[in-house]
Amino acid sequence: LNQSQREAFKRVLGNGPVSLLQGPPGTGKTWFIASLLHYLMTKEGARRILLVSQAHEAVNNALEKGMEVCRNMGADFNAVRLGAESVASDEIRHLHASSIENAYRESFKAEQKERIVELATAFGLPKGYAAEVVDLHLRLGMLCDRIAKLQARADREDKRSAVSMDARVHALTESFYDIAADVYQVDAQGDPAEILNGIREGLAEKYEVRSQDAISRLLRVIKLSEEWVAALGSSDANFAEFLAKSR
User: Which of 77, 88, 107, 205 is buried deepest, with most CB atoms within 10 A?
Assistant: First the structure.
């Protein structure tokens, strides 16, 4: 390194040691990077390693080799690929931040009912009751929330947009009525929120649930779980930043 290059390294890295590995294509530089990653993680206890390059392909290649080395050595490769998803290679697409985020969200959604029921039984509600309340939310509760939000938006829109939203509200409301009739044998017309509360009250009577506090806690847990799923899909969630700090 010449003097200006050494000074540049010092500004970035401080006065610590700097190593330079140089060689033409095919001499094993990528394998060296992969082996170094494995060594730093398993022998030096490094918690966070930043791997950067001027070329997306170089980052992909290094991650692919790093994953291969760690797999062959029986070590976890807990990495995240940042940047645009389109530049990640197919082999490491599952390591991209958006792919990990989707996997988290789908895993949580698959276990959502089981998790909520387990929490509900912990504060004294019958398992069957909690399961039916969760099913009710997934079938009608979310639909009811969607209708209410569209109605609130329609009140703030101009006449043309309001007409379009009213049509959507009507279609969703008809779907709500159909599900209420088919699944819960409730042949009713009117406010979806009132119909939903009526079905909930029927479930409480069916399972002889008397604690309004426990019911309220269950509904809050359901709402919180929905907010968590929604947050994972939001651009404001900063999930990639969280992954960068924890992988």
Answer: 88
Worst-scoring range by mean pLDDT, 5-14, 21-30, 73-82, 223-232?
5-14
Query: Cβ neighbours of residue 148 under 8 Å, at least 6 residues apart?
Result: 192, 193
Q: Is the dihedral of CA 109, 114, 119, 123 positive or negative?
A: positive
pLDDT exceeds cutoff 90 at 152:
no
Residue 141 CB: number of other CB atoms within 10 A? 22
Looking at residue 234, the DSSP 8-state letter turns out to be S
Residue of 86, 78, 22 whose CA lies nearest to 47: 78
> Residue 183 and residue 205: Cα distance in Å, rounded?
18
Distance CA 142, CA 144 (A): 5
* Average pLDDT rounded to a whole number, residues 20-32: 89
Count of residues making up the chain: 247
Residue 182 Cα distances to 139, 168, 169, 185, 186, angstroms: 11, 21, 20, 6, 8
Inter-residue long-range contacts of 26-33, CB under 8 Å, 24+ positions, other chains counted: 30/58, 30/61, 30/62, 30/65, 31/65, 31/69, 33/62, 33/65, 33/66
Maximum separation of any 2 CA atoms in the chain, in Å: 84
Average pLDDT value for residue range 9-32: 79
**pTM of the model as a whole:** 0.66
